[in-house]
Design goal:
mainly alpha; 62% helix; rod-shaped
Length: 112
């Protein structure tokens, strides 16, 4: 009649270990969610920057083509003729030497 009852209750140390395990698992889950949210927000920022880069590249290409058109030698000549500009094309440039200076040596840049 005086038998021991077999109880399967957890001891205090088991409950403490279980509580620590719950804290560790829940904090790692929260950390994982926070990390994923940062990744998603960073992806959005990267896509915005990439679209801005593409817009800038397109505008740079347009400006480059406009500059090339404006600086094209044949078109520039025609524009100068249309506005009767006194500017003319320089065919040959001769270096000026002072009266006392000698001619530059054979291998100098001015002789090339």
């Amino acid at each position: 009649m005086n038998r021991k009852k077999s109880t399967s209750s957890l001891g205090f140390s088991s409950l403490v270990l279980l509580g620590i395990a719950v804290v560790i698992v829940s904090s790692s889950g929260i950390g994982y969610v926070v990390m994923k949210n940062r990744q998603i927000s960073t992806r959005g920022e990267i896509s915005e920057v990439q679209s801005r880069i593409q817009d800038h590249q397109i505008s740079i290409l347009l400006y480059d083509s406009e500059i090339e058109e404006a600086l094209g030698i044949f078109q520039l000549r025609q524009k100068l003729k249309k506005i009767n500009s006194p500017l003319t094309e320089i065919d040959f440039v001769e270096p000026l030497l002072e009266a006392n200076e000698e001619s530059p040596p054979e291998n100098s840049v001015a002789r090339r």
